[in-house]
Every structure is written in C-alpha cells, then in structure tokens.
Amino acid sequence: MDLQLENRTALVTGASMGIGRGIALALAAEGARLAVVARRKTLLDELAGDIAAARRPPPALIVQDVMATDAAARIRDAAIAALGTVEILVNCAGGSRPLPIDAGDERWEEAMTLNFTRLRQLTQALLPGMIERRWGRIINITGKSEPDRINAAFAAKAAVHSWAKGLSREIGRHGITVNSIAPGRIISEQILRNYPEEERRRFSAEEIPVGEYGQPADLACLAVFLASPLARYVTGTVIPVDGGLRRYQF
Fold first, then answer.
1. Are 175 and 134 in contact (CB under 8 A)?
2. Within 13 Å, how many C-alpha atoms sit on residue 2's CB side?
3. pLDDT (tens digit, 9 = 90+) per residue, 41-87?
4. Taking the model in full, what pTM does it have?
5. Strands across the sheet with 9-12, in order?
6. b/e for 146-164, b at 16 or more Cβ within 10 A?
7. Which long-range contacts (CB under 8 A, 24 or more apart) does 101-108 make?
8. 224, 5 contact by CB (below 8 A)
9. What Rg, from alpha-carbon coordinates, does the chain have?
C-alpha cells in the first residue's frame, strides 16, 4: 500500500531509542523527511546512520532536553529551519514516574511537565503552520488506562488523552487529525531495565494474549498509517497496541 508519505515532513521526539526510534525508521522507510529529537547525540547519530544505510535521506538531528523551559520553541525553530515545514508531529518523549502516596509537589510537577506540558507546548507551537497549510497529523504516544499503583505518568497520559480529544474537535475542520497510541509492554531501554527477563517471560505467559512483549515496529506501523493522508477520517482516538493486554471492552 502506498501511504503517500514520500517527501512529507515529520518531527519525532524521543527518537533515540525504543518506540520513537522505531517510528522514525518506519517514517523514513516510507519516504518522509525527518527531524528527530533526543538528549543523547550519539544515539541520534546511530539512528541517522541506519536511515542513511537504507538509502533514505538522513534526518536532521535536534539534541534537546524536553525538560528545558524553552524546549518547545527551540525544537520548533530547529525543525522548521531543517525541514521548512512540519506536517507530522510524533510526540514520543516521556517516561514512567512511580511515586509514593506522599510524594511532594516537585515530583508531580516534573512528571506532568515531561509527559504532558512539553508535549502540549510543542504541539501548540507547530499548530499555526498546520492550520495555514490546512493539513497536519499529530500522534501522541501515551500509556495505559488501568493503573495498578500511583504513577504520575499515568495521570499525565490521561491528561494527554483528554486534551487531545478536545483538540481534535477544534482543528478537524483544518484537515488536521490528533490521535493517541497507548502502548502495552513494548521492548525498550526502560522495559529492559525495569523488568528482568524471567519477569518478562512470566508476564507474557500470564497476561499478554499473544504471549510476548511487543517490538517498536509493532507500534510504528500504526503510527505511520495515522501519519498518512489515508487516515484522514481517524481522529480523536486512543488506540492500544498491547497484544491484547488491556482488559477493558472500551
């Protein structure tokens, strides 16, 4: 299937590894021109090398910590300088933040900034250009809706879901879609660090209907479709990619 992404411009945050890296590779394979964002330049260099080895134009590298106060403006300016326009935004930067019940405000504020506020700010910084061109795709990589403990990232991702739904109602008339993908257990640096191999095997056998943790490419294929012109009538959604882990009907 031709996803009509050749020469479309895309910005992917959190692109140095895991899901973000997988999405960047998949977009590049479809011919999109990329700017990729992460804190670690060495990993971005490796990503650029892999894309170039596949005979695709290497991405523009933006080394930026999204926690910086002016991160959204810096990322926007660097991406537009490299690409001219940003038609597709993939918000993938974030991280799990388990907290005790008595966690202080500063820890909650850090988690909300990382997982919600910077994402919202970057989207708002790029929206005027999308509205002017009457085309755009915003894809948020979020998280599950079945908390088993206090995790500030879950609260932040719930905020993303609510905000994204409202935003989709406002900007659909401009040809812009907003969707969220809720990953299950997708192999990443964080997953490998937090869940030993024995625990991953047990969890896969007992909790995941397809019987294994997912790979970044399993989620990237959906992200690439949502980024395409073919997905023009899909907006305001939260779509799990979790091998059946989610238990709710809707």
1. yes
2. 3
3. 999 999 999 999 999 999 999 999 999 999 999 999 999 999 999 99
4. 0.95
5. 60-63, 33-38, 9-12, 88-91, 136-141, 176-183, 238-241
6. eeeeebbbbbbbbbbbebb
7. 101/150, 103/150, 103/152, 107/152, 108/152
8. yes
9. 17
Tokens standing for 209? 């209907």
pLDDT in tens, 76-99: 999 999 999 999 999 999 988 999
Distance from the first to the final alpha carbon of the chain: 29
Could you tell me which residues come within 8 angstroms of residue 210 by beta carbon, excluding any fewer than 6 positions away? 243, 244
Nearest in space to 244 (alpha carbons), one of 196, 189, 206, 197: 206
CA distances in angstroms from 224 to 4, 24, 78, 110, 140, listed in the order given = 10, 9, 23, 30, 12
Residue of 65, 52, 57, 60 whose CA lies nearest to 6: 57
The CA-atom distances, in angstroms, between 22 and each of 14, 27, 47, 160, 215 are: 10, 9, 10, 21, 9
Give me the chain's average pLDDT, please. Answer: 95
Nearest by Cα to 39 from 71, 73, 11, 16 = 16
